[in-house]
């Protein structure tokens, strides 16, 4: 396959934090994406053939040879975009800075592997079916995740999560924080007091167009 694909198709839902990670990264790196928006509770048979796990997002890359590459996990998609599009904006520190690259991956994995799965729609539906308060559960998971991120980011943060440059860690953090705010897992005063590093990072990210435009969406889903 060629190093960079000729087209990228992102299958997503508007309020998926995993999907938002890919949109933000693509905007930061000026990578064109064709987005296919799915209804939150509906997965057509054709989509299940693409992604048997029935989750979002799914990224399909097409190449001049006619070959395709289908990815179903957001972290692998982010690494794929970083390695395939090595332009002016890099979302991993230089290969000469092994420690910084490890910190970025550690923070990104905290969000993607520890925090998000525990309060995903699939888990929340199960909790609700058991007669429990699924929103309270999600708020507790998110707030704990924010506090853990704070403790780790204190070691590495500058203007952003690792140093002063935007990285994959920030790309993962921003949608998680949007989701937490939506569910009222925190307010501004609490965040400033209990997680000042995260609060400062979020202020920096909110000033960047790619994060504002690529984050969680509220547009109507057609059809």
Can you tell me about this structure?
This protein is an alpha+beta fold and 223 residues long. Helices cover 52% and strands 9% of the residues. It is built from ten helices and four strands. It has helices at residues 17-28, 45-50, 74-84, 98-115, 121-129, 134-153, 168-182, 188-194, 196-206, 209-214; strands at residues 7-12, 34-37, 58-62, 68-71. It has a four-stranded mixed sheet with strand order 2-1-3-4. Helix 4 (98-115) packs parallel to helix 7 (168-182), helix 5 (121-129) packs across helix 6 and helix 7 (168-182) crosses helix 9. Residues 219-223 have low confidence and may be disordered.
Write the layout of secondary structure elements.
Blueprint: E1 7-12, H1 17-28, E2 34-37, H2 45-50, E3 58-62, E4 68-71, H3 74-84, H4 98-115, H5 121-129, H6 134-153, H7 168-182, H8 188-194, H9 196-206, H10 209-214
Parallel strand pairs: 1-2
Antiparallel strand pairs: 1-3, 3-4
Sum this structure up briefly.
The protein is α+β, with helices and mostly antiparallel strands and 223 residues long. Helices cover 52% and strands 9% of the residues.
Derived structural class: alpha+beta
The biggest beta sheet is recorded as: 4 strands, mixed
**SSE topology string:** EHEHEEHHHHHHHH
Enumerate how many helices there are, as a single number.
Answer: 10
Mean pLDDT: 93
Across the major sheet, the strand order is 2-1-3-4
Estimated share of beta-strand residues: 5-15%
Helical amount:
40-55%
**Record field, number of beta strands:** 4
Distance between the termini: 35 Å
Weakly predicted, low-confidence segments? 219-223
Q: In angstroms, what is the radius of gyration?
A: 17 Å
Judging from the principal axes of the Cα atoms, what is the shape?
A: globular
């Amino acid at each position: 396959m060629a190093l960079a694909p000729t087209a990228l198709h992102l299958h997503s839902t508007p309020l998926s934090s995993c999907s938002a990670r890919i949109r933000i990264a693509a905007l930061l790196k000026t990578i064109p994406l064709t987005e296919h928006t799915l209804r939150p509770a509906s997965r057509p048979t054709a989509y299940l053939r693409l992604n048997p796990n029935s989750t979002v997002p799914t990224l399909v890359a097409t190449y001049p040879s006619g070959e395709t590459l289908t990815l179903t996990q957001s972290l692998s998609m982010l690494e794929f975009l970083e390695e395939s599009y090595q332009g002016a904006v890099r979302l991993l520190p230089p290969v000469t800075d092994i420690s910084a690259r490890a910190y970025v991956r550690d923070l990104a994995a905290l969000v993607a592997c520890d925090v998000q799965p525990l309060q995903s729609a699939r888990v929340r539906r199960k909790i609700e079916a058991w007669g429990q308060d699924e929103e309270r559960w999600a708020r507790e998971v998110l707030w704990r995740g924010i506090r853990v991120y704070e403790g780790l980011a204190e070691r590495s943060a500058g203007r952003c999560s690792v140093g002063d440059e935007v990285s994959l860690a920030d790309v993962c953090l921003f949608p998680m924080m949007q989701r937490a705010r939506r569910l009222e897992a925190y307010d501004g005063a609490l965040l400033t007091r209990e997680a000042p590093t995260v609060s400062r990072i979020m202020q920096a990210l909110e000033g960047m167009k790619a994060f504002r435009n690529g984050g969680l969406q509220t547009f109507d889903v057609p059809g």
